[in-house]
Design a protein that fits this description.
The complex is a heterodimer of chains A (140) and B (112). Chain A has 140 residues and is α+β, with helices and mostly antiparallel strands. Chain A has helices at residues 19-32, 40-65, 112-119, and strands at residues 5-13, 70-78, 81-88, 122-127, 132-139. Chain A has one domain (5-139): Histidine kinase-like ATPase, C-terminal domain (Heat Shock Protein 90), CATH 3.30.565. Helices cover 34% and strands 29% of the residues of chain A.
């Protein structure tokens, strides 16, 4: 695989049984990168995790409104920048107002976005006219 | 969620038989543990040797079990975590909450 350009687009039904598939794609991409000198196994796990968490969020948002919706996940690598976009059709949320987990009094939920923000280099969430886009960037 | 339950050394040991715990199966795990606790099985060890991936919902299911067991004066501990699974507990500081044992013998010894 050449790292110069790679583009993977996947559209799945809003069902959690597809999380394994999406996570596995991230893991395979990490393991096949040519010019990556870091910890490949860690990157593979992190991409699996980030894709799983982002897709779970999109499924949750979508199923609240339209249960038979789909989620689109786009993975693009160019010039050592890995870019993930996850599109949902839910009401959206304000990323800036999502608090950090309380480590002293841990709760059962709210750790997904923390993982994404901690393990990746840039995370934005934008509301567009017909959908919302969670954009995640990792510099390789 | 594929799992086995065995009574060993006075503990209920849940052997998770899945490679992945994510939002697809974590709800089932959470309910299973809650059901055990409601039926008086409050000293639980979750054996995670087969698990190579866990996400935030999986951590949440185990934390739910931990809290519910503690509320009934019991305990939920973990054993046999793979390094990358363990790193998720470290990243969320949940390694300070759970007792995490290298293997089941170590878990049983600490219970004794």
């Amino acid at each position: 695989m050449c790292n110069s350009i790679l583009q993977v687009d996947v559209i799945i039904p809003t069902q959690t049984k597809y999380l394994d598939l999406i996570g596995s794609i991230g893991e395979h991409i990490a393991k096949d990168l040519d010019d990556f000198s870091g910890d490949r196994e860690a990157l593979a796990y992190h991409l699996n995790l980030v894709l799983t968490e982002a897709t779970t969020n999109a499924i949750k948002h979508a199923t609240l409104i339209t249960p038979k919706d789909t989620v689109r996940i786009s993975i693009h690598i160019q010039d050592n920048e890995l870019n993930i976009k996850v599109y949902d059709h839910g009401q959206g949320f304000d990323l800036e107002n999502v608090p950090l987990p309380d480590f002293d009094q841990p709760k059962e939920s709210g750790m997904g976005l923390y993982f994404i923000r901690t393990l990746m280099d840039s995370v934005t969430y934008k509301k567009q006219s017909d959908c919302n886009v969670l954009e995640i960037i990792k510099y390789l | 969620m594929k799992l086995n339950l065995e009574k060993m050394n006075g503990c209920s040991v849940i052997f998770i038989q899945e490679e992945r715990i994510d939002a697809h199966n974590s709800g089932e795990l959470k309910e299973y543990i809650l059901h055990m606790i409601e039926h008086g099985e409050v000293n639980i060890i979750v054996q995670l040797e087969s698990v190579r991936f866990i996400d935030s919902s999986g951590l949440g299911a185990l934390l739910s079990g931990y809290k519910n067991a503690a509320a009934k004066s019991g305990k939920l501990a973990l054993a046999c975590c793979k390094q990358q699974v363990l790193s998720m507990f470290e990243l969320t500081r949940l390694n300070r909450v759970f007792e995490i044992y290298t293997d089941l013998n170590e878990a049983f010894e600490s219970e004794a």
